[in-house]
Amino acid sequence: MILDIDTKLLKKNAYRVTKQRGITALRIRVPGGDLNIKYFDIIKEVAEKYGNGTVHITTRQGFEIPGIPMEKINEINELISPIIRGLKDEGVQIEDEEGGYPAAGTRNVSSCIGNRVCPFANYDTTALALKIEKLIYPNDYHVKIAVTGCPNDCIKAHMQDIGVIGQVEPIYDPSRCIGCQACVKNCKRRVTGALTFENFKVVRDPNRCIGCGECILKCPTSAWTRGEKYYRIVIMGRTGKKNPRLAQTFIEWANEESVLKIIKNMYDFIDKYIDKTLDKEHVGYIVDREGFKKFKEEVLKDVKLPKKAKVANHIDYAGYRYERNTIYD
Ligand code: SF4
Ligand code: SF4
Ligand code: SF4
């Protein structure tokens, strides 16, 4: 049977055009990579009853269920409605819970496991991922966002359009310090070498400190404690065929409020400058065309950054292009 399928609508609904005619695959969003176990039964049912009995775990922490006949889409949308209702209950604006996912352009907001589990985490990554999801979904613009608990960057925030990296200001109490230098040695060996030991005290160089919080974890006497939490925002990293590159630091020592406002403003920027003659345009290429200066002005509109925040004046993306033979000459 040859089906008259609207592929735009299909993709918007989070189904994929596959290499097999008439067969699709459904992507389940899992913001922050955190899914209530009660939804697993639904995923299992879709895979067994409509798919090929397998589930692919995506790189963005979602589930992709392959082998679905396209004519079953409406039935499946009804079946997955509790998962979509779950998003709605969390505050994501969804009008028709039984109509399937309302958009797929803005990808699942992924996150590392964060401070619910990981001792290195500087904040609750899953909670922030959900706040971002509420702010930006549903949306057709092709945007990738990930949040990570500390500069170890397990989620690979550096490969996203927006990557949010947890920071903490370590507070030093010299009266508790026994001078063991465990923090100094660790920072030098594993981080950025921001600590020195001078006149029987530890001195932190704020320009070298990236707020990872390892000194707090290393100190045997709690001479280092957690101060305010902050975020480093890295922007416009990407993979893809044209010009893969790592995201670069845009702002350090931002607070949560400013992170959310900047992300919201970025969507307004896309709306204003996207090339509407194209089927889709990835945000990184819009920034390349319009320039970092314009991007910076637009996304910082009405953003109240903490006093401590530092904003990049320019960004020098290296990345690379697939120019044949240049590296082999
Ligand atoms: S990025 Fe940091 S907080 Fe997140 S899982 Fe890795 S080590 Fe833990
Ligand atoms: S680890 Fe703690 S006690 Fe040891 S030098 Fe650092 S601050 Fe002082
Ligand atoms: S927070 Fe990290 S970078 Fe800063 S002083 Fe401590 S260990 Fe070094």
UniProtKB/TrEMBL annotation:
InterPro entries: 4Fe4S_Fe-S-bd, 4Fe4S_Fe_S_CS, NiRdtase/SiRdtase_haem-b_fer, Nit/Sulf_reduc_fer-like_dom_sf, NO2/SO3_Rdtase_4Fe4S_dom, NO2/SO3_Rdtase_4Fe4S_prot, NO2/SO3_Rdtase_4Fe4S_sf, NO2/SO3_Rdtase_FeS/sirohaem_BS. The keyword rRNA processing does not apply. GO terms for biological process: sulfate assimilation. Gene3D superfamilies: 3.30.70.20, Sulfite Reductase Hemoprotein, domain 1, Sulfite Reductase Hemoprotein,Domain 2. One of its GO terms (cellular component) is sulfite reductase complex (NADPH). One of its GO terms (molecular function) is 4 iron, 4 sulfur cluster binding. Keywords: 4Fe-4S, Heme, Iron, Iron-sulfur, Metal-binding, Oxidoreductase. Residues 168-198, 200-229 form the 4Fe-4S ferredoxin-type domain. Belongs to the nitrite and sulfite reductase 4Fe-4S domain family. NCBIfam families: sulfite_red_C. This is Sulfite reductase, subunit C. It comes from Thermoanaerobacterium thermosaccharolyticum M0795. The lineage of its organism: Bacteria, Bacillati, Bacillota, Clostridia, Thermoanaerobacterales.
